[in-house]
Amino acid sequence: MRSADTPVDTGWHRIHIGRQPIHDVTGALVAYELLFRSHSQAQGATARGAEATSQVIVNAFSEFGLERLTGSHLCFINLTREFLVGELPLPFDSGPVVLEVLETIRIDEEVIAGVRKLAEQGFAIALDDFVLGNDHERLLEIASYVKIEVSGVDPDLLRSRVEACRAYPGLRLVAERLETEADLQLAKDLGFTLFQGYLLGKPRVLSLDTLAPSRLRHLELISKLADEDTDIEQVAAIVTADPALSYRILRATNSAAAGLWHRIASVNDAIMVLGTERLRHWVTLMLLSDVVDDGQGVDTERMSHILTRARLCQLLSRSLGLPSDKAFTVGLLSGIADLLGVPPQELVSHLSLSKDVSAALIDQCGPLGSVVTTAKAYEQGEMPDPQDETAQLAHAYLTAVDWSMNILTSSSST
Fold first, then answer.
1. Mind listing the domains of the chain with CATH numbers?
2. What values do phi and psi take at 125, rounded to 5?
3. 317 in Cβ contact with 24 (< 8 Å)
4. Which pLDDT value is given to residue 147?
5. What is a GO molecular function of this protein (predicted)?
């Protein structure tokens, strides 16, 4: 029996994210703070810095899905200096996201300019663990939220911090580290309107088994995206060569903050919607987030199975005059569903797919559904009739196997 943190198999890894609720004065849930967690039993963050922040962002948007983690509530995410000053990108729009400026960040002119720019882009800014005398007061005029620790703090000192914030109309005060009823009552008496702490809810670690993407593909894609002469077909070829990367890109495109206004029919569609700049931003963070991962290798056999099915569906679609990129995506997602051991509708529920792609995956109906049904039947040894179709299908299958093995061989040897 595997432990809670053991991947199902190589080629898989288990990802984790912490989530702590924030309530209003009535006790209603209004937000979640998302936190880095390295395993399901973690009581706190075991890594900090840009890599940990990157993993939180990537896991939230392109693995779990922000709508799945926070629903219609606000989402607080801690940022390091690199993100605030623009050295690392934020590949999503403001939406429901509140950006927290950590108390450990040294405030200088570059940080102030970066935070102001993020606020001008529509992001709400929160100051974390606010105290007086460390230059974070310089951000009060930009911030929308200020988080102040309550438990163990002298009431007079706490009152002075609150009074300093009241000089800025519109600031919402978040009482954090509430551990007793007395802490909560004091916070209410001082005029706090939002509340967070163990008294109201400890951080809960959510876990998810997912495919481990190839770092090589990330590097290759970043390199291509940096080339002004790279066309969309070259980009799509790199993305579709890695099932895990393809799924991440589809999820990132579907995130509530990605500005999506139409349904996605293929990986190519997702790339077009994101655009090369935002795609490069996402891939950069994905590569950085994997630095703090467990380094599990890829199970070549299972990766080959997914890629072979996707390629086979693509080849079959061409002879039928169907969109080949849609067929590839249907085959890819059906293979991922098989490997994850989840019904296709569970994957579909987290992706903004076009109706024909969704129907092909869930019910295997329509022309695209027939393609994936044929591919899966051949994998299981069921031969079509008449005989000439068997020969054509066998040739297409062997071509797909050869293609997938070449892809994986080039990945492992580079």
1. 12-207 (3.20.20.450), 212-413 (1.10.3210)
2. -110, 135
3. no
4. 98
5. kinase activity
